[in-house]
Design goal:
single chain, Dna Ligase, domain 1, 44% helix, 12 strands, rod-shaped, alpha+beta, 5-stranded mixed sheet, 4 domains
């Protein structure tokens, strides 16, 4: 079935698919077990023979208690057997294939037949196996089931025996259960699976509880560390603000270095120049004072890379002194 079909299926269909998938998986696992080990631990059911619509004990056998599971042995007059060859498949696929081919393989009329089979050995070519196919009329199968129900027992096996030396008994019980003719015997397997499911659920609940406890413990640790984290974040913000202030101060100092500008002016002014006024507004400087007649202050400033646009101003005219000529110069201060 496609993914779209699974999404559109109802709960009954999904349950049927789950059961079929489980049976297929267990059949595949059973096929991995070596043949010599498959019979280990298999229970030997009490055997009773079917004849003339009733069940009877074998001579010398003890009577099983009421409601016990038994093996029903069928007389050779109720079934037909044929040996064929088919590709090697798992037992469940083999049962399905024989159910589809039953009417063609065995000459039964009426309302159909109950077909069962088993692998008898390797086939004549690689990849093929010999299969013993047994068929029983559906009416005869219903009579066997009615006899089992009337006896008060549960049939775990319905065996076709006496087929031949090289043919093992063939069990009709699975095919009869699939057709709804034979009731399924009571088994402890559902209880065991219920216990397994409960244990798995408890294990998952324990894992979930442990995860929730771990998450709660981590949340408590986080809540306890929250004040320290808040203080650390506040310190980090203050450090970032201080770092930004330091960067801005450095930039401003680099662009507007008052002391550095004054030191540069003092260094480049020629000997004998008397500086009367020094004005600095962050972008330009204004120098005024007196100089010897042979010295040009503007030329000295132009020779420095720190100053540009050196100009003489005449806003305030000063009288010359015996010791020198007045000067009034403005210049733009270059950034470093």
């Amino acid at each position: 079935m496609s993914g779209r079909g699974i999404l559109d299926a109802d709960m009954r269909t999904l349950a049927h698919l789950a059961v079929e998938g489980w049976r297929w998986w267990t059949t595949e696992l059973r096929a991995l077990v070596p043949e010599r080990l498959r019979g280990l631990g298999r229970r030997a059911w009490p055997r009773m023979r079917y004849a003339d619509g009733a069940l009877s004990l074998e001579p010398g056998a003890a009577a099983p208690p009421p409601g016990a599971s038994i093996s029903v042995l069928l007389p050779g007059t109720l079934f037909l057997v044929r040996r064929i060859e088919r590709p090697a498949v798992n037992p469940r696929d083999l049962s399905r294939m024989l159910a589809l081919e039953g009417e063609r393989l065995l000459p039964f009329t009426g309302d159909g037949a109950i077909v069962a089979g088993q692998v008898a050995g390797p086939g004549s070519s690689p990849g093929r196996v010999a299969v013993d196919v047994a068929g029983m009329a559906a009416d005869a199968g219903r009579q066997v089931a009615e006899a089992v129900a009337a006896s008060g027992f549960a049939a775990s096996q319905v065996l076709a025996e006496g087929i031949g030396q090289d043919c093992a008994p063939i069990d009709f019980a699975p095919a009869m259960r699939d057709l709804g003719i034979l009731a399924r015997p009571r088994s402890a397997a559902p209880c065991l699976w219920l216990v397994v499911g409960l244990l798995v659920a408890l294990n998952l609940a324990a894992v979930v509880w442990r995860d929730m406890a771990s998450v709660a413990r981590i949340e408590r640790i986080v809540a306890e560390q929250q004040p320290a984290v808040a203080i650390a974040q506040q310190i980090e913000r203050r450090v970032a603000a201080s770092r930004g202030l330091a960067v801005r101060t450095a930039v401003l100092r680099q662009r507007q270095d008052a002391l550095g500008t004054l030191a540069t002016v003092s260094r480049i002014l020629p000997e004998g120049v008397w500086l009367e006024r020094y004005v600095w507004d962050g972008a330009t400087v204004r120098l005024s004072g007196y100089r010897p007649k042979a010295i040009d202050v503007a030329t000295a400033l132009r020779g420095s890379r720190r100053f540009a646009d050196v100009q003489s101003t005449t806003d305030e005219m000063k009288a010359a002194l015996p010791g020198g000529e007045p000067f009034d110069i403005t210049a733009r201060v270059r950034s470093r």
